[in-house]
Write a structure and sequence with these properties.
The chain is an all-beta fold. The protein is built from no helices and 19 strands. It has strands at 6-13, 24-26, 37-44, 50-55, 67-72, 79-84, 90-94, 99-103, 110-114, 123-127, 133-137, 151-155, 162-166, 181-184, 190-194, 199-203, 209-214, 219-225, 228-235.
């Protein structure tokens, strides 16, 4: 964080008396038949002191923030991103409930929420210089269409309007059910990580692919599939990629 603290995303057991209120997911897939985990956020000083804590169960609604039907119930919200915004507030992404929120750092209240009517198991909402959010919308189990496809969208911070998006033609040519991300570059292009298949590519604002790299390194991995983590043999997955200017890497001699 700008104050030199760290913001950490972790999990904790959901209060047992509230477990039955959580909707969705595959029945009878709780931990040991009874427990569900939810997200918790800590702000930690360099000395290891916790100075701020945010519990998902205190601010999300278990009756309306519903687990995707194809996911197991051992984890409710499944946070995959936490970040500090320019105004000091906190952005969070929750995969299992297809929701992005902004939390007021002073009060802990959710002041912005984008849900499954727009998103589908998204990753890496990050703030652009214009204040909008850039989001990799994975598209797994999308509620409003039968076809799974990914897209990268820029969302107006205030109106929640999609001001631009990248979708392939046909749409299902670009799809990563898990991981992935997108970064807006200084030249206005967008660097996209299609994580499941190890593909990293750069597109212009008109959607033209101007650079592409496919990870040539394969290894045995367990990756999410349907209701569980399943062995899928050799994979070249890339969790996320970033582009750095030479001046950002002072030790690199070009």
């Amino acid at each position: 964080m700008r104050n030199s603290n760290r913001i950490i995303l972790a999990i904790e057991k959901f209060p047992q008396y509230l477990v039955t209120q959580i909707q969705g997911g595959i029945p009878n897939t709780e931990v040991d038949g009874k427990d569900i985990y939810a997200d918790v956020v800590y702000e930690v000083t360099p000395q290891g002191e916790i100075v701020w804590t945010w519990h998902a169960y205190e601010h999300l609604n278990p009756e309306t923030d519903i687990i995707t039907a194809q996911d197991e119930r051992h984890e409710w919200s499944h946070g995959n991103t936490v970040g500090e915004l320019a105004d000091g507030n906190i952005v969070l992404s929750f995969r299992n409930i297809s929701t992005v929120v902004i939390v007021d750092k002073n009060t802990g209240e959710i002041i912005y929420k984008l849900g499954h009517n727009v998103l589908a198991q998204q990753h890496f909402p990050n703030e652009l210089t214009n204040g909008n959010l850039l989001i990799f919308d994975n598209g797994a189990h999308r509620q409003n269409t039968a076809l799974n496809f990914s897209r990268v969208i820029e969302i107006n911070h205030q109106s929640k309007e999609i001001v631009c998006e990248y979708v392939d033609n046909p749409p299902h040519n670009f799809f990563s059910a898990y991981i992935s991300g997108a970064q807006r570059l200084p030249n206005g292009n967008t660097l996209i990580t299609e994580g499941a298949y190890g593909r990293i590519f750069e597109v212009t604002s008109e959607g033209e692919v101007v650079w592409e790299f496919v990870n040539p390194f394969f290894s045995k991995q367990n990756i999410p599939g349907g209701s569980a983590f399943v062995a899928c043999g050799e994979q070249n997955s890339v969790f996320r990629a970033f582009c750095y200017a030479p001046e950002q890497i002072p030790w690199l001699k070009l």
